[in-house]
Amino acid sequence: MNLPKMPLGHTNRARRLISAGLLALWSGLAAGQPNHLSYIDVSHYELGFHLGRFSQEIAGKARIRFYAKACVSVFYLDFGCAPNNQGSMRVHYLHMPGMAQWAALDDRLEIRLDNPLMEGQEYEVEVAYSGKPRDGLILSENAFGEPTLFADNWPNRAHLWFPCADHPSDKATVTYKVTYPSGYSLIANGQLLVDSLLNEGLRYAEYATLTPLPTKVMVIGLAHFAISPPCMVGQVEVTSWVYDALSLQGFADYAPACQILEWYVGQLGPYPYEKLANVQSTTLYGGMENASCIFYHEGSVSGHGGLEALIAHEIAHQWFGNSATESHWPHIWLSEGFATYFTHLYLAETYGRDTLMNRMRLDRDKVARFHHRYQAPVIDSRQTELTQLLNPNSYEKGSWFLHMLRHRLGDSMFWNCMRTYHSLYMHANASTWDLLGVVNNLSGSDYGPFFRQWLERPGHPVLKVTWKANKKGEMEVTVRQTQKELFDFELELRALGPSNAAIVPVHIGQRKTVAVLQAGAPIVGLEVDPDVHLLFENASARP
User: Fold this and answer.
1) Of 395, 405, 371, 372, whose CA–CA distance to 534 is shortest?
2) What structural domains and CATH numbers belong to the chain?
3) For residues 318 and 324, what is the distance between their CA atoms, to the nearest angstrom?
4) Is 503 exposed, middle or buried (CB count within 10 Å of its CB: 0-12, 13-18, 19+)?
5) pLDDT tens digits for range 96-152
6) Is omega for the bond preceding 212 within 30 degrees of 0, making it cis?
7) What are the C-alpha distances in Å from 485 to residues 366, 376, 459, 466, 515?
8) Are the C-beta atoms of residues 341 and 398 closer than 8 Å to each other?
9) Is the pTM of this model over 0.70?
């Protein structure tokens, strides 16, 4: 995901629809799965929608298959209704064999049974409803004044347009069965199975996924699209979906996707989904990594390019965040830190090593500036406002952690760990400690202290480094940690002279460390972390 950007050229109406009241709707639990989802495990959603007048409201029918995780007589589904069924989304009926009664609560459906669920047994519940979602499914207009419909679920807004278990730890396959106005094009996750004309005014389409998804990346989109001819990466079809009036610009702007996908497949292994559609949309975020159909903000299409990093970020999410999904919200760096770092690695492969070093320097500055405002670890269990987790700790510091891990492991072992981690947790969920288990097992070393220091503790080393030449022509370097809590790390130093000396790694674990470097006279200076391998801050640069 890339952070919110107001697309260029929005109408006033679209701005109001997208911005009004969103923060009030995004509160949620940051740590662990909500208690009511500990009773069920959804295996499949069949979502039917009639969108004949989609600019006004939708009519939906959901069939939800699930397994019981506990023997209970009452269970719940997340849904954007209101008490007594008086909200904008109205439930017309709810049916399940053995149901005694149901009730619409605040953003939840309560289902009471005559007999308890049997643990491990599969059940099905059907819900019919209609209304205009207050969020999650955005019925709006694009810059050309044309009605559009786009899902925008992150973090837990899917339940505002269909009943579900709205948490990343619950993954399920999904089938969409949609009736929509002819003249429009429908995009959704998965394979297109059916798309046919019903009559002069309506079409009917079905999409289905072969693999389970978290609700945060289950989406549909409806607009007047121009669709590019496909390019193929192996057996994967890659297309661009852009507004009709911008087809030439959009096809050119989104063209890097094929090369990017090919590089990721070579580094990480097979692409996890059925297709890759890159879709211009009228939604909130700069980019949203919806599984197999990425939504980019409306203003991303300009005809001037410049989207390579954004596209690389969102495609990286198809492996990390969508396929291997964080088990709980505080571990969101497993999505955003991974996508940030793999974008850097792709760009370094494409444009050279200096690109990586420059981007890591910029990220290092972002981490430092953020820490001055908010002191928290990467795994931030205290934060209960989920959108606040979209910060430089999750993105840039998570990326920096992977960069330092790669330096310690070496390239070959690092890529082995990344591929193994994804293959083990593909289409499932993982925590930071699952990643640690992979790294420990493959490396044969205990990386627990390294993980805990950089991910569970706030802050980073803040260093004051000085040097002087002694009588032997050597360089005496003094490194002082000036932050409150000490860090343990390796700092690379290089003495500068007529011919630059080799890089020397120095172990730093105390408040003050003195190291002696061999340097040819005359000594003219010192390079600290010359290859940009350490997340730290220069003490003299602090405000």
Assistant:
1) 405
2) 2-316 (2.60.40.1730), 324-456 (1.10.390.10), 462-541 (2.60.40.1840)
3) 9
4) middle
5) 999 999 999 999 999 999 999 999 999 999 999 999 999 999 999 999 999 999 999
6) no
7) 21, 13, 9, 21, 21
8) yes
9) yes
